[in-house]
Amino acid sequence: MIKTENINFRISKEQKEALGKMGEGNLSQAVSSAVDFFLTFPPGFMSEIKKIAEMVKLPIPIVIVHLLQVYSAQDTALIKYFGKSKTFQRAFRFDPVKGMITGDELSDLTFKDVLGELDKILEKKERSKQPGKKFNLTIDEASLLAHVL
Question: Where are the domains of the chain?
């Protein structure tokens, strides 16, 4: 059993009503879930989120929500247009020994993979400059470029 500690804090009437509308009638559980949510962020990810929050002068929760909304909408559009996306493949990777890859390791691996894929596309573009060569993209390549543009 997890040992808990009682703490006191204040929330506005509007916040309490909003939690109720979300189906979070148990205020203690809602706060505990929110704390758990923030504790799952790897240090490197939180560092990037803090930089963005400072840059746009918005609170961290708003930055996270907006990034997730835009990311989700972009991914949905890519799936509608191209019929697929590598997002889930990248987000849910497994190591045969460690299990699911998470945290900064997941971010670093995804970053390296995307850079490698972009390098291959640029190399392909350069090769297409040779006489008689064409620059054709696969659906995966077009989807990646659409995602980063």
Answer: 42-148
- Residue 85: Cβ-neighbour burial (10 angstroms; 0-12, 13-18, 19+): buried
| Cβ proximity of 27 and 20 under 8 Å | no
Q: Is the pTM higher than 0.85?
A: no
CA distances, 93 to each of 40, 74, 109, 148, 149 (Å): 17, 21, 10, 21, 24
Q: Is 86 helix (H, G, I), strand (E, B) or coil?
A: coil
Residues 104, 12: Cα–Cα separation, whole Å: 35
pLDDT (tens digit, 9 = 90+) per residue, 77-87?
Answer: 888 888 888 88
Q: Residue with structure tokens 């979300």?
A: 22
Tell me the C-alpha distance between 138 and 122, whole Å. Answer: 13
Count of beta carbons in the 10 Å neighbourhood of residue 20: 12
